[in-house]
Amino acid sequence: xxxxxxxGPLRAIEIxxxxxxxxxxxxxxxxxxxxxxxxxxRHAADIPRDAxxxxxxxSQLDADAVLSxxxxxxxxxxxxxxxxxxxxxxxxxxxxxxxxxxMGGDAVVSLHRLDxxxxxxxxxxxxxxxxxxxxxxxELGHIAGxxxxxxxxxxxxxxxxxxxxxxxxxxxxxxxxxxxxxxMRHALHA
Amino acid sequence: xxxxxRDTTSVLIVDDERIxxxxxxxxxxxxxxxVATADGGRMALRLAxxxxxxxxxxxxxxxxxxxxxxxxxxxxVAPDTAVIIMTAYASVETAVxxxxxxxxxxxxxxxxxxxxxxxxxxxxxxRRLRVEASAVGKENPHDFIIGESPAMRRVVALxxxxxxxxxxxxxxxxxxxxxxxxxxxxxxxxxRCFNPFVAVHCGALAEGLLESELFGHEKGAFTGxxxxxxxxxxxxxxxxxxxxEIGDVSPKVQVELLRVLEEKCxxxxxxxxxxxxxxxxxxxxxRDLREAIASGTFREDLYYRLNVVTIDLPPLxxxxxxxxxxxxxxxxxxCHAMGKPPMRFSAExxxxxxxxxxxxxxxxxxxxxxxxxxxxxxxxxTRADLPRYVVDRAVRPMPHTLADLERxxxxxxxxxxxxxxxxxxxxxxxxxxxxxxxxxxxxxxxPGNER
Lengths: 190, 451
Description:
The complex is a heterodimer of chains A (190) and B (451). Chain A is of the alpha/beta class. Chain A has one domain: Collagenase (Catalytic Domain) (3-Layer(aba) Sandwich), CATH 3.40.390. Chain A has helices spanning 23-37, 63-71, 125-143, 162-167, 174-179, 182-188, and strands at residues 12-18, 41-43, 61-62, 79-85, 89-90, 99-101, 107-110. In chain A, the strands form two sheets. A five-stranded mixed beta sheet of chain A has the order 2-1-4-7-6, sandwiched between helices. A two-stranded parallel sheet of chain A has the order 3-5. In chain A, helix 1 (23-37) packs across helix 3 (125-143). The longest helix of chain A is centred in the last third of the chain and has 19 residues, at 125-143. Chain A is globular and about 40 Å long. By secondary structure, chain B is of the alpha/beta class. Chain B folds into four domains: 10-137, Response regulator (Rossmann fold, 3-Layer(aba) Sandwich), CATH 3.40.50; 141-313, P-loop containing nucleotide triphosphate hydrolases (Rossmann fold, 3-Layer(aba) Sandwich), CATH 3.40.50.300; 316-395, Helicase, Ruva Protein, domain 3 (Orthogonal Bundle), CATH 1.10.8; 402-441, Homeodomain-like (Arc Repressor Mutant, subunit A, Orthogonal Bundle), CATH 1.10.10.60. Chain B has 20 helices and 16 strands. The radius of gyration of chain B is 30 Å and the shape is extended. Classes of the chains: A alpha/beta (190), B alpha/beta (451). Chains A and B meet through helix 5 of A and helix 1 and helix 5 of B.
């Protein structure tokens, strides 16, 4: 995430399916995130698989290039775009990201490594959805201007491992909540 | 960007590729780190010289100065910075080279975010522990030697330059100037700091006892020697032996000392076996050893063996500007040791301390301060709490002009020589005629001549 413009008021979240995504998962995600963030979430038009930027020599989407793509996507005024993909997210310098965001901009989250099946465990749609919603809130925190937090109880704790997503808190710690912009605090720190 | 729970760990990223610097910099900033970037070795060295970094991430392949070369140079500029080498290819050779050149670890591109995060955290912790361990061991001479005067700054600078070497040090200074503190500071700032510092007060022991103390003895070496005893040299193995009052050592022990210093091995009293010992010698004296050599009481060869580096400790009267600082330091220490609340000197008390000439030097000042702490009512030590002799001497008006100073000095020399004009003229470095003229000009009269 890089420092761009300061975040504006959060009126809605528009979820953009990047490539092929199970419709049931997408609907469940829209409903779950609506309940969690307290602002309307809706399904915006998908970006087809072929239009997605990929990393050369790696079976991954280029996370930063996806964010650049979302930056020119026609979003509704006052809405944040949240790209969601079933593909793995990568970066020329990093092996993978669960999600990636730009301050005051948009975010992208990958389901790829959030499903227990990725780690050889029985697949679980519920676990994957729970993790995805938590990761979406984490990235929304970045959009709101928050950096990573050292507090294990805070959702802004950095997670390079899926276990951390499961173990860290589900909400913002006091310090991070204080730093949330007023326009987004009500939605994110309900 | 707003930050919660900010981490002030500083990271230097060195890579010739802009995308790497920007991406990695942005990633660390998001994690709360204080980040600086450099596009090559030269810029990195300049940045590292300007400010300390906790961790430096160096790309192994850069045009000009590569990461390993930079790591070696960085160690000279910022030895405490933990270095992580970034490489595109993992190989045993790379790992070995990186670690051999003193790097903390290496990491392969592209980075696993969790691995990178943990590695930098571990490197930061490693760096913190190393700095702490270093601070515990190698003390700063400033912690031992209190004083801001040019004379004391010179002493500290000399300790700092000689401490890391193994050179023998001879400390010269009047009684109470803090020679043992200088010896301890030299040891504490040396690579031997984790080994023993053993002090021997040579002047306090009779010849036979000193030999046994220094070199040890075998069982039955003399009446009462019920077992083998390791001497101070052996006890100082790997560390520093401090030979205080070296000028008072008997000629016989001087010969033995010379042999031990030259051969670095001791023979215990009553024994025949040579024991190899590794030690550094710091010696001290309040006597003029050159005079002792001239008078035949000190061996010239031992003097030159000891006198590799000499540290001259000035008497307190020669750096009176340090008195307030020293007095406050001793006061804090004394209050703490006696369990008293923090105290301060009244303006008059501090003035009296500044005016006294402290013939007993810092030791005398320490006694005066201790008395003040015992008698004084917190939070202030007044003039009345100081020793009488300090206050009495202090009320003598200080000469204000050079002429006053000259008059005072002439009077002092005349009094000390019993008004022997020839002797006084010699001490003052003037001829008798000039001295008579000064006596007349200053209106001085020999005691007993008054009418």
